[in-house]
Design a protein that fits this description.
The complex is a heterodimer of chains A (384) and B (242).
Chain A lengths: L2 H11 L1 H34 L4 E6 L7 E2 L2 H6 L4 E7 L15 E4 L1 H7 L3 E2 L2 H9 L3 E5 H7 L6 E5 L11 E12 L9 E4 H7 L6 E2 L1 E6 L5 H11 L7 E5 H10 L4 H30 L1 H9 L4 H34 L14 H27 L3 H6 L1
Parallel strand pairs in A: 4-9, 6-8
Antiparallel strand pairs in A: 1-11, 1-12, 2-10, 3-11, 5-8, 6-9, 7-8
Chain B lengths: L12 E14 L2 E14 L3 E5 L6 H8 L7 E6 L2 E2 L5 H11 E4 L11 H6 L9 H14 L15 H13 L5 E5 L7 H18 L2 E5 L3 H4 L4 E6 L2 E6 L6
Parallel strand pairs in B: 3-8, 3-9, 6-7, 7-8
Antiparallel strand pairs in B: 1-2, 1-4, 4-5, 9-10
Classes of the chains: A alpha+beta (384), B alpha/beta (242).
The structure holds adenosine-5'-triphosphate (ATP) and magnesium ion.
Adenosine-5'-triphosphate sits at the interface of chains B and A.
Chain lengths: 384, 242
């Protein structure tokens, strides 16, 4: 007999109630795990933002195009190190629900600006040799089973071809991975020169520029200098840091993070009440037993830990198993939307937060009954 | 030289209460439960405490066992003045020196007889095997060596009380304090329990203070004291002459 086995037996006393409480805690922590992963998916852009990257778009809106000639002018501005550009292609693979982004880019420039996209050197060589070549990220490759050598037809929605057809066929020459777990590996990138030559619209247009500055400290000043350069031209620009750009983008779909936090908070408050109620009942029913323990020589502190330990056990059994299962499912099975989300993983910080919440839940539900048990007067309690 | 008659050697005192008052506050006013109570119990005595309900018997037992403290006066148990002990010291002292037997047994329903009896040993450094061995011995003493694995709800009232006594014995305390140990038992079971207490007193030398309403139970003791309205009023001769 140890204190722990005494506690475990105490839990087994009203095992249905204990089990239901543990189960509800388990469900809450499963939910916590999945919502954490979903929140990261929505916040992924802002998290991977680099402090030294600027996004330069049309001053009126992101859907208006900028001249390709701006690139060279930007390179001449003080503080600008590298420049690349991308364009929203918005094509459909087979059906609209198979959405993933596609962008025409200049291979060297783009990979230079985004070192977190890891592409094997020989695949980059192949891409540079293949005009219709495209590279695709691991997420999307896994989602549709794309392999190097595949030919992937994409239906244009914005950019029909010169000959009036809608189908663009790309040769997959490479598959890139993300350097960090937060890196978005859903886009497909294909060659800008192929795009510029083959689409029906005006030549020499790009969607937006990506600029690397020499020193993140002066990022705002450089952004200002860029906007100045193109002020009073037909296509004025708006330059901002990548973080600000993505945050603005995210706010258009609502503050998902805040909504998820609110849901989780409400769930935890409810669970806290459930667990606290279980503990309060359990201590009330056992007033007599606790008094006997004290009469037998168990100290006030021991009785306090006995009750608190029981609360921690309940929270721990439900919480750890919930976290463990959600973590396992998220890591092993992965994205339940089958690739709709750009990234899907549980960050270490959220796992840590989850563990902390387990402990807080245990302490929060147990400390009042535990204090009550500690201050229990033996003679009084035994008279009842 | 003439032979000197040897003085009877004075028995050592196990319990000495001197001028003990105990009052409780209830609804703003204080009610006196024990008043100017003095009591000496020699080592090895089996004392029965009788008296009407509310006369303060349980309160007195609680003071002796250190479950409560007197409002005035001193309580000395086996030479130790327990008023001077801090609360945590009192707890430890109680674990080593006092064995309690309750009217309603107060066993842990989730533990079998063996683990119930071994419970007080959780506070010691004894090995698991040693605790188990001692619990088996204690259960053997109370005649339940064949009921080790049974849970309280599967035992009769008399058997449960004997498990309670085994639990009180396991730390080998000097005193057993029994509050109406037969109050909830039928005649035959009560007889068993009383016989057992007598054996513990006579053969193992345990000092016993037992509260009881039952005159026949009191007959088992070596001395009977009557308590009324917080005072010891009368001492009747012992039933069981040693
Ligand atoms: N903690 C307490 N608070 C208030 N009053 C108390 C407390 N403990 C005992 N009393 C009062 O003290 C008196 C004596 O109580 P006690 O339990 O000692 O009586 P008793 O002789 O054991 O009675 P019984 O034979 O019914 O068990 C009673 O009037 C009781 O109400
Ligand atoms: Mg009483």
């Amino acid at each position: 007999m140890s204190m722990l086995s005494l506690m475990l037996r105490g839990l087994g006393r009203k095992w249905v109630r204990t089990l239901l409480t543990i189960l509800s805690i388990f469900v809450a922590f499963m939910l916590f795990g999945f919502l954490a992963a979903i929140r990261v998916a929505f916040a992924s852009g802002a998290n991977v933002a680099d402090a030294d990257r600027l996004i330069v778009r049309h001053a009126v809106s992101i859907i208006q195009m900028l001249p390709e000639t701006y690139g060279d002018r930007m390179r001449r501005i003080d503080g600008v190190k590298d420049v690349s550009h991308a364009t929203w292609f918005g094509g459909i693979y087979q059906e609209p629900k198979n959405f993933f982004p596609q962008h025409p880019v200049i291979p060297d420039d783009h990979l230079n600006l985004y070192p977190e996209l890891l592409l094997p050197a020989e695949q980059l060589q192949a891409w540079k040799k293949t005009r219709t070549g495209a590279i695709v990220g691991r997420t999307t490759a896994d989602r549709f089973g794309f392999k190097v050598g595949d030919r992937v037809p994409i239906q244009a929605t914005i950019w029909p071809k010169k000959d009036g057809t809608q189908t663009w066929t790309f040769d997959i020459v490479g598959i890139y991975d993300g350097a960090k777990s937060g890196t978005d590996t859903s886009p497909l990138f294909f060659r800008y020169d192929y795009f510029d030559e083959a689409h029906r619209g005006t030549r020499g247009q790009v969607g937006w520029y990506i600029v690397r500055v020499d020193d993140p400290k002066y990022a705002d000043a450089v952004a200002e200098a860029i906007d100045q350069t193109f002020a009073n031209s037909p296509a004025e620009t708006k330059a901002e840091t990548e973080g600000a750009f993505l945050a603005g983008f995210a706010s258009q779909i609502g503050n998902i993070g805040a909504i998820l936090t609110a849901i989780i908070s409400a769930v935890f408050f409810t669970i806290l009440l459930v667990a606290a109620n279980t503990m309060a009942q359990s201590v009330r029913e056992r007033t007599n037993e606790l008094a006997v323990l004290k009469a037998l020589g168990f100290g006030d502190g021991q009785v306090l830990w006995f009750v608190l330990g029981e609360a921690l056990l309940i929270a721990g059994l439900g919480g750890f198993s919930g976290l463990l299962l959600s973590f396992t499912l998220i890591t092993v099975v992965g994205d339940p939307t089958n690739g709709m989300l750009p990234v899907f993983y549980m960050p270490k910080a959220d796992l840590g937060l989850g563990l902390l919440l387990v402990v807080l839940l245990g302490v929060g539900s147990g400390f009042l009954p535990a204090l009550q048990a500690r201050s229990l007067q033996i003679a009084d309690a035994l008279r009842r | 030289m003439s032979a000197v008659t040897p003085e009877p050697r004075p028995k050592s005192l196990m319990l000495h209460l001197d001028g003990v008052d105990k009052s409780f506050k209830r609804g703003g006013q204080s009610i006196v439960v024990l008043e100017e109570l003095s009591l000496k119990v020699p080592t090895g005595e089996f004392l029965a405490l009788m008296g009407p309900s509310g006369s303060g018997k349980s309160t007195l037992l609680n003071l002796i066992g250190g479950l409560d403290r007197p409002s005035h006066g001193s309580v000395v148990v086996d030479g130790q003045s327990i008023d001077s002990l801090k609360s945590s010291e009192l707890t430890r002292w109680r674990a080593r020196n006092i064995g309690f037997v309750f009217q309603f047994y107060n066993l842990m329903p989730v533990l079998n007889a063996l683990n119930n009896v071994a419970l007080p040993l959780m506070l010691t450094n004894l090995s698991h095997a040693e605790r188990r061995k001692r619990a088996e011995i204690a259960l053997g003493i109370v005649g339940l060596g064949h009921r080790l694995k049974q849970y309280p709800r599967t035992l009769s009232g008399g058997e449960q009380q004997r498990v309670g006594i085994a639990r009180a014995l396991i730390t080998d305390p000097k005193i057993l304090l029994c509050d109406e140990p037969t109050g909830d038992l039928d005649r035959a079971s009560a007889r068993d329990v009383l016989d057992l207490l007598q054996v513990l007193n006579r053969d193992l030398g345990k000092t016993i203070v037992m509260v009881t309403h039952d005159p026949q139970a009191a007959e088992c003791a070596t001395r009977i004291l009557h308590l009324d309205k917080g005072r010891l009023i009368r001492e009747s001769g012992s039933g069981a002459n040693p």
